[in-house]
Design a protein that fits this description.
372 residues; Rossmann fold; 6-phosphogluconate dehydrogenase C-terminal fold; Alpha-Beta Plaits; eight-stranded mixed β-sheet; four-stranded antiparallel β-sheet; 13 helices; globular; aromatic amino acid biosynthesis
């Protein structure tokens, strides 16, 4: 049961009918979350099959010509976002229109160039998603605890702003106000370039020697997880945010060249320092990433061997609860050709010894801890 479903009885900030144009992953997920709160959701999509699928899964109902929406959410691919926003503003005068595209400056400038009245348009972007798209992958809880960028300008009324921020809050997200260009530079670094890096690294796998990938551990899986994303969507996203992405890529290319040069002559003066500084700089960057509840806190990791049989992971969680050890994060890795997995559990540093001693006393095998 999701956090949203358990709180469905509370009053939603979003009222009336919400029209969602685009019944893919984000549009359908918004529909599921609002429907769980009792909000009337009207779905529209150019694909009848996608629309029918979203409705069948419970994301909302099919939109009707006589609908009078109180809010319109545009959740379509980047290359048609501006066109759909313009159409919805014209068809529903006075209604707040927001979009959830991952690039904010390009559609805004396009609409400005067409002299579209943007009084009731507020661009937004939930920093949420999954590797697989479409209505079938939609979930009501993908926004919970995630940032939701809202791009207001000087003409945005407080009432309109409250509508969009209320939507984000209803879905469990945290609204953050940013200018469109500021947003696009930020996601170039934190989302768009990571996608390219993951894809480039995973793109080396088809040429790997036979058997090499059988050695893949959690590190390479973590690094390449998002490489499974849809190429057709990312061509549009990267094209719409090309300049900020190129800035980050150029800086990254310079860093890679510097490290490559150092490793070509690892015994040369300064070479080892270059490599060490690169790793240390990465340590500093990771320290800055917000963790649980947005806090910049470091946790220790305990790796536990878990038999590949039903109920073992539940038993592990249950016994950690008995030990009063809170699990801050969890990663699972299956050992190749072995009947067990490795559960990497993140806990508070003060809980490491209690967890290790208590689990070992209960028969669990500890593969390693952070300080091993």
């Amino acid at each position: 049961m999701t956090e949203l479903s358990t709180s469905a009885a509370r009053a939603a900030r979003t009222h009336g009918t919400v029209r969602i144009v685009g019944a893919g992953l984000l549009g359908s997920s918004i529909g599921h979350a609002l429907s769980a709160l009792g909000v009337d959701v009207a779905l529209d999509d150019t694909s009848p099959a996608q629309l029918r699928l979203a409705v069948d899964y419970g994301a909302g109902r099919v939109a009707r010509p006589d609908d009078r929406p109180s809010l319109i959410v545009v959740a379509v691919p980047p290359d048609v976002t501006a066109d759909v926003i313009e159409r919805e503003l014209a068809a529903h005068p006075g209604v707040v229109v927001t979009d959830v595209a991952s690039v904010k400056l390009e559609p805004f400038q396009t609409l400005q160039g067409r002299d579209v009245d943007l009084t009731h348009y507020i661009g937004s972007h939930p920093l949420a998603g999954r590797e697989r798209g479409g209505a079938i992958s939609a979930r009501a809880d993908i926004f919970v605890g995630r940032p939701w960028v809202v791009c207001r300008d000087g003409d945005t009324s407080a009432a309109d702003l409250a509508v969009v921020e209320g939507l984000a809050l209803d879905l469990g997200a945290t609204p953050i106000e940013m200018a469109p260009d500021e947003h696009d530079r930020a996601v170039a670094l934190t989302s768009h370039v990571p996608q390219l890096v993951a894809s480039l690294l995973a793109g080396r796998f088809p040429d790997a020697p036979d058997g090499a990938l059988r050695l893949a551990g959690q590190g390479v899986r973590d690094t390449t997880r998002i490489a499974a994303s849809a190429p057709e969507l990312w061509v549009q996203i990267l094209g719409a945010n090309a300049a900020p992405v190129v800035d980050v890529l150029d800086a990254l290319a310079a860093d890679l060249t510097r490290v490559s040069d150092a490793l070509r002559a690892p015994d040369a003066p300064g070479a080892r320092r270059t490599v060490a500084d690169t790793i240390r700089r990465g340590n500093e960057g990771v320290e800055l990433l917000p963790g649980k509840h947005g806090q910049n806190r470091r946790f220790e990791q305990i790796v536990v061997m878990v038999d590949d049989t039903p109920g073992q992971l539940g038993r592990l969680f249950g016994e950690l609860g008995e030990l009063e050890v809170n699990v801050e994060d969890l990663r699972l890795e299956h050992s190749p050709r072995a009947q067990f997995g490795l559960a990497e559990i993140s806990v508070e540093p003060t809980a490491v010894r209690r967890a290790v001693d208590g689990l070992e006393a209960r028969g669990w095998k500890i593969a390693s801890t952070t300080n091993d």
